[in-house]
Amino acid sequence: MAEAHQAVAFQFTITPEGIDLQLSHEALRQVYLSGLRSWKKRIVRLKNNVITGVYPASPSSWLFVVIAILATMYTRSDPSMGLIAKIQEHLPASGSMSMQCQTVVSAVLFSTLLWLSLIFTMKLCLKQLLSYHRWMFEQHGNVSTTTKVWVMLVRIFSGRQPLLYSYQGSLPNLPVPAIKDTVKRYLESVRPLKSDSEFERMTNLAKEFEDSLGSRLQWYLKLKALWASNYVSDWWEEYIYLRGRGPIMVNSNYYGMVLILFSCLFSHLFFHTRFMFMPSPPPFYLSICSIWAIFSYILPPFLPLSVQWLLRSCIPCCSYQYQRLFDTCRIPGIIRVVHWQDSEYVAVYHRGRYFRLWLYQAGRMLSPREIEYQIQRILDDPSPPAPGEEKLGAFTAGDRIPWAKARKEFFSSGVNKRSLDCIEKAAFFVTLDDDEQGMMGDDPAANVDRYAKSLLHGKCYDRWFDKSFSVVIFKNGKNGLNAEHSWADAPIVSHMWEYALATDSFQLGYNEEGHCKGDVNPSLPQPQRLTWDIPKQCQEQVAQCLAVAQPLADDIDFHVFAFRDFGKGSIKKIKMSPDGFIQLALQLAFYRDRGMFCLTYEASMTRLFREGRTETVRSCSSESCAFIKAFENGEDVEVCRRLIRNASEKHQMLYRLAMTGAGIDRHLFCLYVVSKYLGIESPFLKEALSEPWRLSTSQTPFQQLELFDFVNHPDYITCGGGFGPVADDGYGVSYSLIGEKIISFHVSSKHSCPDTDSHKFGTQIRKALHDLLQLMTINQSDAAGSEQNHSSKTQNKKEL
């Protein structure tokens, strides 16, 4: 109990002689150091806010302007054209200052106003420059003169060394597309999916909407676009994520995997090469460094985002979503995500018990070895879970209404509120899982599928699905994360995860005994065990939430695989977009799997605009359907090549339109929200937004290639992450282009649907990739033979 006594700053007892006051000097010292660090962070935050606020100028430029104005006045010139004299006349304390002092003060005030005006002008100019997007529609290597001049001007107005949030005030607002353009693109996207009669009916509904209700709803959207930073993002977060009353586990949350060696000999090669000299490797420790790396991501000098993330080295993207990466939790009932600041601990779950693990001591961050020491204390703790504690996390996995009611009834006061606050206000959540996961054993492929399922939902109660993200560390040293989706999109979490994994693997490392490097302070206080008082009624509600979540988790069918036969390097050689090539392969695979085309969702970003998040690329187009029909019907090779290039170019155009604010679905969604506020029903909007996404896809991009050396460390690659299917009878597909030679896929579906099978669909994806590359790489001399072979395959398929 020595640590508990040290945690108390003072004690007192009442005796016949009076009050005996006992101060703990160590505790007071800790309070002082903690407060000192907190004030230092506030000062740093204030400094960064000032630097960001005056960007693209710098604070030192104010002094330059003041000196220039004073020097000009010294030459008896008046650069203010009489404004300095006017300011001098209205100085409130002019009677107590000499004439010369009044002149200097007036000049300084004028210089400050001039400096602020110049900053405003530069921000406005930069905002106008960043509204130019023609560069995105130009082919690589064929850049227009206009774009070259534009790039030069952007770099001039951007200043030097931008910080993470430097460009926020200069990013343009997301434009509201014209109603007729959105309706036209929508009709084009559904044409290949509807019969002639269905399309005619939808066209009539669209025309009626465009001629009547559409213009009224559009007026409200334009008004919001003038007033708000982004006319989509707040409604998207609220209505798509926060107002949903179903489980967020599987349906909304997603997962990310650790660095993984794609080899059937993973268990042997990884552990026995990395720790071959250990007498007995302690597997849990093999991921402890990742906790330190994640926490250091937000602290100088380790923050990798001190320079703004730029496209093509000069085009900034919005960084708004990074603000809620840590210290953030989704709260049921209040329909919002709550963000705190400066949390210095993480919440840890192990064998049904919750702990608070402080990562700061005496004003400094614990070393990886000290974090390992504290984790070992948690592992060695023999205390059993309190009644109702073990499966408490099931509240966050089930329906939202029961969780909101239980939180209000059982967790609004007393010890339960204090413990719940500790979890929700933690920097992030950590689960020490007793299971072993990864590519191992006699069936490594199936084990990777189970690894993905475990990261997505676990046991339905051993993750805190409301936290911004939860790190999961398995018994054999593998790890991963589960992320809540409402506060940000996958690239934000992916950026942090890449940094943490690279830091863990290539910078921190472990000693010969398998422990984290560094020394340990043995006087560290014991991790704090959270206490609960869970009544029987609350325990029954936990069981009910688990009864809802468990079937949902059991129904998920996952298949994760690495396609190693070729990668984006081979695709670029045939002069096609790697993303467009993969999307066409997915379309072909789905057509072969189901014998039909479907509405396809591909996520793209709109972070070229302030507070931008995502837009939908409707990958299934008339061009892609025409190609697939021709290819499957055994058409001439040259015809198929022409059609596939048309389809790829169409996909690239749709992607560029989505990125530049000319997408379809976010505009229709916001029009629908306005119609609901006005209490008006729109048959067109209702039907357009109720169509199921049977194929939901997303590419997880690598953003920090400099952290991974695929040449010298080819065995260390990350296979990205995945998510659950959007439609009950559809697939969810996440993919990553790893280096030049590997493409990883995460395929999800539901066992309950007889028409879907993730492993079967994975096989179709592999075959489609091979067939498309073969189509584009066969030479002319082999064309006749290939056509004959292609036609015979098609005929055999028809006969079958």
TrEMBL record:
It is a multi-pass membrane protein. GO terms for molecular function: carnitine O-palmitoyltransferase activity. Its main location: mitochondrion. Residues 174-766 form the Choline/carnitine acyltransferase domain. PROSITE patterns: ACYLTRANSF_C_1, ACYLTRANSF_C_2. Residues 1-47 form the Carnitine O-palmitoyltransferase N-terminal domain. It is found in: Mitochondrion outer membrane. It catalyses: (R)-carnitine + hexadecanoyl-CoA = O-hexadecanoyl-(R)-carnitine + CoA. GO terms for biological process: carnitine metabolic process; fatty acid beta-oxidation; long-chain fatty acid transport. Residues 780-800 are annotated as: Disordered. PANTHER family: CARNITINE O-ACYLTRANSFERASE, CARNITINE O-PALMITOYLTRANSFERASE. This is carnitine O-palmitoyltransferase. It comes from Astyanax mexicanus (Blind cave fish). The lineage of its organism: Eukaryota, Metazoa, Chordata, Craniata, Vertebrata.
